[in-house]
Every structure is written in structure tokens, then in C-alpha cells.
Amino acid sequence: MELISIYFSGGFIDYQFYVNLNINDIIEGLFIFKLQALLTIVVFFVFVFLLFKLASICQRKLNVMLRLMGLVIAVISLNYAHGPIDKLGEIYQVTQSPKIAFNDALQKFNLSDYPTKDQIQTVAGKNIIVISVESFEQGFFDLEQITPNLNKLRQKYAFYPNMPMSTGSSWTTASMYTYMTGMPFLIGGMNTTPLSDVTQTQLVSLGDVLHKANYQTKYIIGSPTFAGIGHIISMFGIDIICEKNYPGVYPPAPFGLYDKDTFDIARKQVDELSQNDKPFALFISTISTHAPNGFYDERMETVINQHQDNMSFVASSLDYNLSQFIAYLEQKRILDNTVFYIFPDHLMMGSGTQTIANLSKNERRLYLLTNAAAADLPYAVTDNIYQVDMPRIILDGAKVKSNAKFLTDYLEKGLNKKVFIEEHKSDIATINQSAGAE
Known about the structure:
- This protein folds into 2 domains: about 90 residues, no CATH class; about 325 residues, Alkaline Phosphatase, subunit A, CATH 3.40.720.10.
- The chain has 18 helices and 11 strands.
């Protein structure tokens, strides 16, 4: 199991691995990582065979005391910071976090003045477009032959390069939950499909804040079943737009839509939403750059040159499609009253691929690209920002005024929030679990 975790997620078994041990995610994982899954199974049986042989030799050659000493040494060698035993302790710490009254959970975490949903007051600001790009971490910007268009946008708009990935926000659903609620996706309880039995949360989300100001809210994603993200989106009261809304219009694709079609739908939705007098917030998730090799769209061959590998071609296609969407917004003057936010959902997963090798040449980080005015944003581009900061950044950058508060609003500016989350996993898990309502 540890080998599988290292190969697919790049680390030892942790909470992220635990919550993806359900039938739906396992089937999706096998669909995406076909060859890798086969190789992992082969390696697993080879290791079992070798361990069996080693155990037989030790049983014949070593007495009981020496074997016990070897076992103790082996266990001690695994017990270090961020090691296998430490990560298993993280799973225990999160899953054993109790469910208590929501107000008690808030007070325990010193969030006693946290405004409830019925207390939220909001004054509308600009329109909002949030684009979460699948696994498209900052290292892709260093590959200028792959991302020429996004590098141009990086020079034109505000770019935040100092954004580490944090615990509880390191996979698609968790990342979305974090930027919607300002809380990492750490959920108490022994459940590999957290919140699946919950229909709403008492945590204030972007959906709650925006609905108070009569925003139209929609979320475009290729397939709502992907990583269980559709259920979480529904908890925030945001309408989902997917391939099912356009039957027969787009070609079949892994997980519903290729990125080219996702942005085509985004253009249609922007046109439709702009016709109304109400402000809008459009959320978009791409999928084609999913590890390990991405999802190849042969239609892009007419505009994208061939690259050395599949992922490079797919990444270059995303660079083109995303930049074309931003150009469309500029041409239609949508950006006169609309703020966009572009960021990766998480770092590229896996190991042993050329893509991971290229991305690992420098420190691996996330980023934020936005056209929001610097004066409206709560952080300078040189500051460290974190995934838990995103709801505050999104609202402030769009000049949305509200009394809503998020976790980041209670934390001292300049605090290393990645470390803070590590140190308060249990409290966060209790809040998330206690906030759920069936």
C-alpha cells in the first residue's frame, strides 16, 4: 500500500490516500493510471515473494531474539517526521476528531464571533470568474515552449508565485472545498467518502456570501462524479453545468469534457449570464491535464505543434484554450466589470514521469493569476499566500463587501498557515464534521 501511495501521490499513506480508498475513486484511478496500476500490482507481488523468501531465511538462520531486534530496528527506522508512522498518526488524529455542537467547535478553535449564514450581509461588487486548472502547477511556466500564452498573461496581470500546497487541500475536491469555505478538507469520522451523507454545511461559503447579494452562481465541470466534487458543490447551493446540459454537442471525453469544450461552454455561460441585470460568479474546473499523461484531444493538433510527450501537448493545449478564453473576455469588454482568478487545484500527482522530472527542477508551488486591482487585494504579490486565503482574496479583489469571516481572517498576517494547519488538524476536522447537517 505504501508503494502505491508513493507512486501515485508522491508520498506515504496519509489522509488524502485514506479518503480516496472508496470504490468510486479506486475505479477512476484505475481508469486514469492503467499501466501504472498494472506495474504496481506486479511490483507488489514481487515484493511479497522476496519478503516471504527473506522471512524464511531469517527463520532458519536467526534466533527469536535477533529477529525481534530486527523488527524493533525496522519500526524505529520508519518513525521520523513526515515518515510512514507519522502519516498514519495523521489519519488517526483526523478521523478520531469528535463531532460536537457547531458553536462549541467554533469556540474551541477561538472562532466565537464567526457570523452564521443568517447573519451574513453582502453588497455586490464585480462579476467573478474562478478557474481551477487541473494539476497545472507553477513549474509549467518555466517550460516556456509549452506556456507562451500564460507567460504573457503573467506579465500583464498580477501573479502571486509564493503559494505552497497545504494539508487538506492537495486533491481536487479538497482544493475546491478550501477555496469555497476557507477551511482545509479535513473531516472527522471513519469515512472514506467524507460528507457523502451531508446535504449542507453550517460553514459560510462563497456561495452563501454571493447569494446574499443576488449573484448568479454556476460551476462548470466535465463530470460532477469526478472525485465526488459534484456533491460538495451542491452543498454550497451552486448550479452545476456539465456535458449533460449540452447532449450531443461535444465529443465523448474522459470525465465528460475536454478542456477545449469546457471553455467553449464557459463562453456561452458568460454570454448568458451577462444578459441579466444581476452580477454573476462563474466557477470552472479543467481536467485534461490530469496525471500521469493527460487526456489527448486530437482536435488541438490544428493549433498546437507536437511535443515530446502527451502531457506536454495537453498542457500546451490548456495554455492555448485558457488564453483564448481570457482574450474573449477582453474583446467583449467583460473584464471591465469582472475579476478572474486562475490557480491550480493542486500539484501534479505521481512520480517517475518526465513531466514530474521537469516540474521538480525548481521548488514545486502553486500560484494565483488575477486581473484584480492591487489596491483591492489583501496581499502584495511578493507575500506568501495560502489556499485558505482564497475566499478572502476572491471577495476583496471583486470589491464584494460582506461581514462574512473565514479562518484566515482570524490568523495573524505573516503567519505560516501551512504549519498552522499541520498543528491544528484535529480542531479543523472537528469543525468540518460538526458543521455538517443531513
